[in-house]
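Hello Y.,

Per our agreement to keep a running log of every chain we model this quarter, I'm adding this entry. I've kept the format consistent with earlier entries: sequence first, then predicted structure.
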Amino acid sequence: MRTIRRAAWRLSGLAAALLLSGCGREGPAEPARYQTAFLGSLDTVVRFTAYCGDSAAFDRACELVRAELEQADRLYNLYRPDSGLSRVNEGAGQGPAAVEPALADAVEASLAWQETTPAVNIAMGSVLSLWHTAREEGSPPDGAAIREAMGHASPSAVRVTRDGGRAWVELADPAMSLDLGSTAKGLAAQEIAEKLRQNGFGCFLLDCGTSTLVCAGSPPGRDGWTVAVRNPDASLNRSGAEDPPETLGQLTLRDGCVGTSGDYQKYFVQNGVLYPHILDAATGQPAAYVRAVTVIAPDAGAADFYSTALYAQPYEQARELAEGIPGLEALWVFADGSTAATPGFGLQPEA
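Predicted structure for the entry above:
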């Protein structure tokens, strides 16, 4: 029997990993809390909360968010044949493809993060495509096809060049493709946060689906936003716990970013075997080292990348990596429901 499932979005504001509450920001008038959601961009639901002096100010903030989400979708969405990334992949082996500088920035940032760990490889697009089809069909891809695709996943074949304000991305291997699934949401969220700050919005929270969050400011009389860390067993009970709680605890964040990767977010099951969507870059097979990883980082792109990297390798190696990245804190959830965290993660019992 085959089962294909996605983790459900909880309309209470508890996404698959994170539950959020509000904050305020200073201004000439006591700010009010406004909230909305954006659908369609980057194959996810983006929830935006801000404290503004009036609804007109919130509308301006929403226009900024909407414009940046649409831009990110045009750049990164592989389900759009006209996206910048799709065009790069279509031109693999045909020389440099002209791209918007923002896409070149994203590729360069992703490759730079990859230099810190082999656990994530944006050049594995052909392998990830096989597993995307597998999730749709509910059956794992042929091993020979995976091995063939893994032979066309060398980051050294990805080249970014620039000339003034112009940029190009070249894939030297005609059988390879890029996939920025490990960084796209975080990069987009970081860009949105910077634009909001530049335009005078000092207290907001942007929650991008089940994996990426960025917040700014703190509530009146509080130390920051309250962010609850999702219990994987609440979405997909694999430990056998009776009536598992929805959360593992909560964080208090001011001007911080959170990234979460877990086996409960996207997966399929065949013959009792769970196949999560995050791959082990060494094998091309779904990573199965831990249930979930949540990270805190100063940058949303880094939070997105490192939550994936720490999930997709053995805990001992992941722990060493996390402790070597300045400003990064992490929490791991294991198959039996137990957890481990870096000293500064700051998980607290729910109030």
